Every structure is written in structure tokens, then in C-alpha cells.
Amino acid sequence: MSSPQFVPVTAFDLVVFGAAGDLSLRKLIPSLFHRWRDDQIPAESRIIGVSRTPMDDEAFRALALKSFREFHPGESIDEKEWAAFSQLLFYREVDASAEDGDWGSLAEALAGGESKQRVFYLALPPSLYGAVSANIAAAGLKSPGARIVLEKPIGHDLVSAREINEAVGAVFDEDAIFRIDHYLGKETVQNLIVLRFMNSLFEPVWNANSIDHVEITVAEAIGAGGRASYYDKAGALRDMVQNHLLQLLCLVAMEPPLDLEPDTVRDEKIKILRALRPITRENVRETTVRGQYGQGAAGGAVAPSYAEELGASSDTETFVALKANVDNWRWKGAPFYLRTGKRMTARYSEIIIQFKDVAHALVDDKGAGLPPTRMVIRLQPDEGVKLLLVTKDPGPGGMRLRYVPLNLSYAEAFDARYPDAYERLLMAVVRGDLALFMRRDEVEAAWRWVDGILDAWGADATPVHHYAAGTDGPAQAAMMLDRDGREWYHG
Ligand code: BG6
Q1: pLDDT tens for residues 80-106?
Q2: What's the CA-to-centroid distance between 181 and ligand 1, angstroms?
Q3: pLDDT digit string (tens) for 252-281?
Q4: Which of 156, 244, 360, 466 is catalytic?
């Protein structure tokens, strides 16, 4: 069942716009280093960093190394290895948003690379995607087969997402546009499809006849910190739900695809997005909770409030909980509860499939009910899958019951390093594998549903409830489930 670890890619020229920024230095360059170290990147490939910051190749290489050390403190770097890798790194100072932004120097750097796979990675604010695409074409840099990678968020609502898609689509064909949702590159997220559809056990019970409800929690321990000024315009709904949580929901809820071709899977996902019951002004208070962290104990110290980090008071939500209904045959009556927030108890992402109660208790449960069968899919950290079952507590006499997990821990089962999602995604772009990226209609369908919530919040003036940093979010999130006779799973 094992297959080669790395699928080799052809030589490429990757242009990273926004190369001096956080994403590039924290994620992209380190991921490329790891792929290079594993021999996946052919030596003729080049990584050309572009931004407005004045720098030469050497300064960029030094900055990349310094950042690697800062963001990967636990990893020792072999200086010789890094020196060899850094020969692939180049830098050009270009104002990508301006047509006359010294594109000539980038053209010069790319010269001679026409036969290689060319990739433009826009680690830039989405408002620039259209202009930069047009400038790439105007500078004559769009070689045949060139691809473009767009970071999320694609816009801040449906209208702006459409504008971006139109503007980029005027230059690049849809199959050359790679819209990143880095959750789709995570090992355990990929495993959702395998777990559901490559084991015969689950699919027959994967519906509202057997499942009571599904919970999806993406909790973060960090605050908005240095990103507060971006974050304040977005909030948790746009930053996390519109993309990551809805993608997870789609993978859990979708019908079995016929195969794993990109469009086959994306066709199934979009059906789920279209089946989401709209949240309206009339039901927004029962189906959503907005929260914002205040001061609190986190990581052994007193963490500042969001307003303190931002330096102003704000109505932006740093936490959101939602009750989503998928209106189709499979899920009628089994809601999906989603929640995500910053400065929660810890960083963890989990999907809980809670099955229905047993029809009849064979023992006197004193009215408490037996705990339900639950499947806990742990996406990060401590990746794994647990099936929580009621079993007999061993021992003579009596029938004592215990709720214990059948536990698949990835760390115990596999002796493998988990690549960062960006490692997989970057190589998928070079290979032209669109399966892990979002299609235009998917992004727009997700915005359509999220726009409905934003409108309802606006019309209703839905309040933001404060929660102490280092907690599970505001009490209202627990109350939302309590009204349905349910509670969030606490592992
Ligand atoms: C990003 C969000 O998309 O995902 C961030 O913009 C968030 O706000 C991050 O912190 C979480 O990603 P991960 O991989 O750490 O779960």
C-alpha cells in the first residue's frame, strides 16, 4: 500500500510577489527548502522574490535564512545545505501594482526560462490581484502555460470576490488559477476523503439516520497580534469560516465523488455550499454567536485584550459559532455546529461526528443515558482518529461501563514527518494538480452564504460577546447548543 513519498516535479521558475512579507518568509521559502532538501526540486529551478523593499539577491538570501531560524526554532539547519539551496533564490525590486514598476528587471531575471513551468505567487493583499495579473501580462511575462496562485481571502464579500475573479480571469484561464485554502493541503484534511470513502464501514451510517450532529472546531491560542489591522477589517467569519471551516464542512458532508479528479470533487463540494440553509435576520440570533477576546490568562501570563492589541475599541468578532443546516436528503435534521476563535484554550482543530443515542439502554443508566458513539477526527495537533465507544469495564461481578477510545494516533502509527500544507500545495501548483485548490464558483458560493450572515448581523446589530482569553469563547456558544439539548464535545 505504500507509494513513493515524493512525486518529482519539472523544473520551474516561481515568482513570489510580496517576498519580504510574513507568508513568504514564514511559510513559502521554508516549504521550498524542505522540498528541495528532499530532492523534489530540480536544480535548474529558480525562486525569484519580488517586492518594493530595496534588496539584492544576497540580502534576500540572508533575510530568508534569518526568518527560517526565527520561525523554525526547533530545526537545525546544515549551513552547507542552506548555501546550496539559497543559490536558487533571487530577488528583484518591483512595484507589482504599477505598470511602470520596473518590470524590466523581473523580465531580465526570467529570461531564458521560457521552457520551464512558470508560476506567479501573489502573497499580496487581494485588492492588488487584478492589477498585478494585468501587469504581468503587459510586461510580457505570461509564458505559455504560466500559472498564478492567489492567497485567501479572495475579496471581502461576493461582489469583491467576483471583481477579483473577473480581473484575474481576464488574464489567466481558470485552470491556470490556483486559489489557496491551505487547510486543503493539511495531511489530516486529505485523509478525510480516504477515511470516508476508502473504508466500507462508515459510508452506510454517514447520514442523519445515524448521525445526531457534527461539530467542527478550529481553535487558536494566538491572538490577532501584529495582524490586528488586517484582521479588524475581516473578523473570524471572513478569515476562517468562509474558507477553512466551510471546506471542512464540505468534505464531511459531500456525496461520494465518482473519482478524485479535481472537478469531480469540486462539483460535489459546491452542491453542499449551495445546500446550506441561509441565515437571515429572523434566525441569526439562534444560529450564530459573535465573540471577542478580552484580557485573560493565556500561556502562563496575562494576555492583552483584542482592543488593546488593536489600540482601539472594535466590534469585530474574533470568535464565531454557527449552526449550519445542510438542506439535502443526507443531512436533514443533523446540524453542523461550527466554531472558531483566537485566544481560545489551546490550538486544536477537530471534527466530531456524534452518532445517535442507542435506542434502548440494557442497563439501568439512572436516566443519565449512555454516552453516544463519537468519532473524533483530530486535524491538528496530535493528528489522529478516535472512535469513542462504550465498553465493559473489566472486572468480576456487575456490569460497569466505561467510555473509551479506539485510538489511531498518527504519531504512533506512522514514522513520518508531516509536511507543512504549503509544501504539498506549492508542488501541486507546479504539477498542475487543481484538486487542492478552490474553483471560482466554490469561492463565490461560500461568499454568498457568508454574505447572508454578514447582512443579517448588520440588520440585527448582533452584539459581540466578550470572552476571557484562554477560554472556550463566550458562554452564548454553549447556550446555542444547549437550546438544542446538545453540548460541545470536551475531549
Ligand atoms: C489563516 C488565517 O488562513 O489561517 C489566520 O488568516 C489563522 O488568522 C490561520 O491564524 C490558521 O492556520 P493554521 O494552519 O495555523 O491552523
Answers
A1: 999 999 999 999 999 999 988 889 999
A2: 10
A3: 999 999 999 999 999 999 999 999 999 999
A4: 244
pLDDT single digits (tens) 160-169: 999 999 999 9
- Phi, psi (deg, nearest 5) at residue 301: -135, 175
Residues in CB range of 245: below 8 A, 6 or more apart: 216, 218, 338, 340
The bridge status of strand 12-17 relative to strand 384-392 is unpaired
Distance between CA atoms of residues 170 and 463, nearest Å: 40
Rg of the chain in Å (alpha carbons): 24
Is 244 a catalytic site residue? yes
Strand locations in 396-449, DSSP E? 401-409, 437-438
Kind plus residue range of the DSSP H or E element containing 431: helix 421-431
User: How far, CA to CA in Å, does 114 sit from each of 7, 91, 110, 227?
Assistant: 23, 18, 8, 37
Q: Half-sphere exposure (CA, 13 Å, Cβ side) for 359?
A: 2
Cα–Cα distance for residue pair 338/491, rounded to 1 Å: 16
> What are the chain's domains?
12-151 (3.40.50.720), 184-482 (3.30.360.10)
Cell of 54: 530595496
What lies within 8 Å, CB to CB, of 386 at 6+ separation is: 374, 375, 376, 378, 405, 406, 407, 408
Ligand 1 centroid – CA 237 distance (Å):
12
- Amino acid present at 25: L
Polymer length of the chain: 491
Sign of CA dihedral 314, 319, 321, 326: positive
Mean pLDDT of the chain: 94
CA of 200 to the centre of ligand 1 (A): 33
465 burial type by CB count under 10 A (0-12 exposed, 13-18 middle, 19+ buried): middle
Classify 155 as helix, strand or coil.
coil
* Beta carbons within 10 angstroms of residue 232's beta carbon: 18
Peptide bond connecting 381 to the previous residue in cis, omega within 30 degrees of 0: yes
Cα 379 to its chain centre, rounded Å, is 11
Name residues contacting ligand 1 (CB within 6 A).
220, 239
Residue 243 alpha carbon, nearest atom of ligand 1: 3
Cell of 8: 518529482
pLDDT of residue 179 exceeding 80, the answer is: yes
Average pLDDT for residues 462-483, to the nearest whole number? 97
The strand order across the sheet containing 211-219 reads: 401-409, 384-392, 374-380, 348-355, 211-219, 336-341, 319-324, 288-294, 464-468
- Whole-structure pTM value: 0.95
Whole-angstrom distance, CA of residue 267 vs CA of residue 255: 10
